[in-house]
Amino acid sequence: MDIAPPTPEPTAATIAYDRTRIGYAVLGALGLVAGIWLAWFGAWTLGWNMDDLGIRPRETAGLIGILTAPFAHASFAHLMSNTLPLGLLAALTLYAYPRATRYALPFIWIASGLGVWLWARPSVHVGISGIVHGLMFFLFVMGLLRRDRLGVAIALVVFFLYGGMVMTVLPRDPSISFEYHLFGALAGIASAIFWFRLDPTPPRKRYDWEDEDEADLVAVDDELEPPPPADVPVLWGGPRVRGGDNIVAFPKRRHDDQTLH
């Protein structure tokens, strides 16, 4: 019984489709990165206060921050620290799971912000690091649940590059919103559990030996099977008794005073 259909050889159409898929993933990731940069540059140019876009827990005026806080950053260093992981993780997510990302990204965005508004410390929380943590945990858990070659490879890559995010969901620095990280990670895990079956599993690579008939395998095994002991020729001469035991006569015992070599 076949476990999976054979993987077709890549054609010009499949290569073109894969390039288009990569292009859309890169374009979407660049759109997110451009959004946070334009928001920061516009606020810096016009002299706006970024705190007005942040989440203020349990304040009615801070509800708007659930949508706007990811575009606000406290400093240029804060913006730079989020740019590269956001671009890379967003591109991998859009490329590997385009269907699930349509639901996972908005869910992570809203759920992480809502969790901060409900349970975070009474301060102003800004930055897109919660979304970044959500994408990292989303990709890692998706690889564990799907167990296909692409998913496992991406899970290993993101854990190798950004596995330190596991520690940043715990309170360490009072100036860092670990709550945003924590609720982003929880939202990423939940979205992976909800939608890991949404994207089709890529076909598994099959090899020639998997398609061999069982009769051919039995014939090969018969050729490699050693002959029975009765058919193996002996290395010494002498009469053979058919139907009985073959007894080998040993030489007579030497005298005790004879020197043995």
Structure description:
By secondary structure, the protein is an all-alpha fold. The chain has one domain: Rhomboid-like fold. It is 55% helix and 0% strand. It contains eight helices and no strands. It has helices spanning 12-46, 65-68, 76-96, 98-119, 129-146, 149-162, 178-195, 214-224. The longest helix has 35 residues, at 12-46. The model is unreliable at 1-6 (pLDDT under 50).
Outline of the structure:
This protein has 261 residues and is an all-alpha fold. 55% of the residues lie in helices and 0% in strands.
What topology does this entry show?
Layout (H helix, E strand, L loop, with lengths): L11 H35 L18 H4 L7 H21 L1 H22 L9 H18 L2 H14 L15 H18 L18 H11 L37
CATH homologous superfamily designation:
Rhomboid-like
- The assigned CATH architecture is Up-down Bundle
What is the CATH class?
A: Mainly Alpha
**Total domain count:** 1
| Classification by helices and strands | mainly alpha
Q: Looking at CATH, which topology would you report?
A: Rhomboid-like fold
Q: What fraction of the residues are assigned to beta strands by DSSP?
A: under 5%
> How many beta strands in the DSSP annotation?
0
Question: How many distinct helices?
Answer: 8
Order of helices and strands: HHHHHHHH
List keywords for this structure.
disordered N terminus, single chain, 8 helices, 261 residues, mainly alpha, Rhomboid-like fold, 55% helix
